[in-house]
Amino acid sequence: MGRHSRSIDAEARLLCVGDDPDSVAALAAGVERHRPAATVESTTDPTVVPTLCSAWHADCVVVEPTLEPLDGDELRTAVRQRHPTVPVVSWTLYEIIG
Fold this sequence. Notes:
The protein is 34% helix and 17% strand. It is of the alpha/beta class.
């Protein structure tokens, strides 16, 4: 494990952020299927994420890197300014065509 690695408990509160509601729903469903004790919230509005982290006490934020109006790096910076101990993880979905 790297120096910034940490384990996420099965009962973790995960906040999933992406610009496509279907993709975010698929990610949340996958987490819930593999970690049934986890609590998952999702949003397609990256501007509310730092506030949701405070209100909801998120243990981890899972972010699609190509968001707008904040991209994944900007959102990670915004979350870490207010919640320096909350890990921010980037994710993306690729579709194989053909």
